[in-house]
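BACKBONE GEOMETRY TOKENS
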Amino acid sequence: MERARYFLAAIETGSLRAAAAKCGVSQPALGQQIALLEEELDVVLLTRSRHGVRPTPAGQSLVEPLARLVAAEDAVRQTAMEASGVYRGRVQIGGVSVTTETIIAPVVGRLRERHPGLRFTVREGASAAIEAAVLDGELDFGVVTMPDEPAAPGLRRIPLMSTPVGVCLRVDHPLAGRDHVHWRDIETWPIVTMRTGTVMWDVLHRHVASPDVVVQAMSARGVQLMVAEGAGIGVLARFDPPRDIPDVTWLPLRDAPPVHVCLTQRRDGRPSPSALIVRRLIRARAGELAGRRPAPQRRRNA
């Protein structure tokens, strides 16, 4: 069944690398398991090229029956777990401020509605601190903005979504009339951004040699509130805009790389059934955000 899941992920994504990221395994491991499935069924399932993978005629004919098998197994497991009350455990989640606000908080609401017996703990901190807590076993997993440094041995990062980096401004700011800005445009303005040690702090200092940072905020919302009060220009990744901070707009930084959000977990740990439920909801919420984000444009928050 696990090999069938890997095969279906490869068909869905068209790439062994993307399928491995989706399934949370290494690319060689996923490729090996698909090869074993081909050997077990005595058919060639995939054709591989530099453009990715696609199903052979035999592989295409097996997509639907294998998908039914996987769906049936999922239904059996879910029914069994609900009947045995396994959703009554406690799940410990970590996140940076922006993922806590936009991804984890909505998931918490869904958990209370769908699984009232499940308990959870949410810890907020910088990406590095959250990953350290996951590695130490203090958290089941974290939802963080991905640092430039490779993951520590023993940690796995599963990509969830990417979001552009830009600046938030008061609508009466001289730069607010533009469609976008560049790093050079903000070098002489006072900057409001996240505190030292965060991914946004690193992004800013990697592109601006000596930024005039006037506020180091603890959260993305703190940055936006300071901008609304006229403290300076905020440097932030774009997520859902707050609805209660008026007169603030967001512009893309054209020459800034996007920020990647990932789910981080221990490599050697086996998530509990309750943790798997929470993780599934988090991935679904990230997919909602990635799918509905409008094209960057100047706007006024309502």
